[in-house]
Amino acid sequence: MGRAEEAPSPEGIRRLYPFLHGGHVPVEVDGSTAVKVAEIVALRERVAELYADRLAECAEAMAGAFAAGGRLFTFGNGGSSTDAQQVATTFLNPWYGRPLPALSLTSDVAVVTALSNDAGFEVVFARQLAALGRAGDIAFGLSTSGGSGNLVQALEEASRRDMLTVGLAGHLGGRFAELRERGVLDFLFVIPSSSVHRIQEAQTTAYHVLWELTQHALGP
Amino acid sequence: MPLTSTARLAVDDAFARRQGAGRRLAEDSELISRACRDMAARFHRGGKLIVFGSGGAGTDASHIAVEFMHPVIVGKRALPSIALSNDVSTVTGVGARNGLAEAFAHQVRHWAGPGDMALGVSPDGRCATVLRGLEQAHELGLFTLALVGGDGGPIAGSAAVDHVLVAGSADPAVVKEIHVTAYHVLWELVHVFHAQYAVHGEPAPAGVHEGAGASGPARPEADR
Prior knowledge:
The complex is a heterodimer. Chain A has a single domain (23-218), classed as Rossmann fold. Chain A has a five-stranded parallel beta sheet, with helices on both faces. Chain A is an alpha/beta fold. Chain A is 55% helix and 11% strand. Residues 1-8 and 18-23 of chain A have low confidence and may be disordered. Chain B is 52% helix and 12% strand. The radius of gyration of chain B is 18 Å and the shape is globular. The model of chain B is unreliable at 206-224 (pLDDT under 50). At the A-B interface, helix 2, helix 3 and helix 8 of A face helix 1, helix 2, helix 3 and helix 8 of B.
């Protein structure tokens, strides 16, 4: 998770939420929900414009990997680790369609703390992929900044092992953009926003759409 | 790889299906604001936020807890929150012994004070484990909030729930996406109110469910 946003100044807060000096819950605060909603609706539209073709291609590649016996490994830090877990459980225990083998690399706290303590946090996902992953599997990394060192190392490890590599990032893509240029990432989806919150929300849509299209490609 | 034309159509359809429900969240602005004001008052008095959900909603519970415990926005203080579904040993242990529906209720019973807040997440509003958790929380005097979807199910209809936000879609994936935006806004507005209470003190609670009072003396909160 990046820390890209600044806290608004007290004056900014007063301007955004002038009611705070009064008593009742006020339209101005209610208005702030409407602003965020408008932002995410517009951002989703933008993501669809930018990436509709690539999302479909990525889902077809993932479906191909699953059909050939591949498994899905997901990873991220902080809020993105909860998304990694959501991706894994969506594929493994779906609302409908075929259950597919998927694992979030933050779900085993013993492995995560052992690796972090003994080998370093930078290799917490790469080492797991080295042990569990094989050619034809899928590595799926989620980051809002695209700058997390442990994700970069994991995707490099996955690429060396001939896994299909997929990255979700935000803002300008950070180090994930370099990975894409170097061919380490097969697919990269960068959410064009500077808000960590809006990036996460649009990423949620992106991975749900990838799951839906993967099911579509695999057929009933 | 050549794209099949149906795949491309499926992408357009998937994005289009999200927008209406996404926009409708704005209609719940006032409800969200009121819930945030109540929550900020409880945090101000030392209450903690206890979050729970099953399956994918468990990942939302984790996300909400980490949002409050470790804010992504520089300068926001940490507020106490735990996600019950993270404790796999206890959830599966209580589940095996007393049935899964009792898992969160058990944790609430032994973790919560009356000044705390309970937030249950269930995309179809039908999760018995979440409902039991909210009922137990209400019985103990906690503030209760539910994030649900579809027709709201039994959770939306429960007298144990003070505030309920119903995402306007029957598709659980879309419901989750709306919930993520909702709890991001929730977190932000709680901080707006909380910061204000810290400076000027709490305004007189008008129509706020604060009968039970805080669970104990307000504990100092870590500044980030």
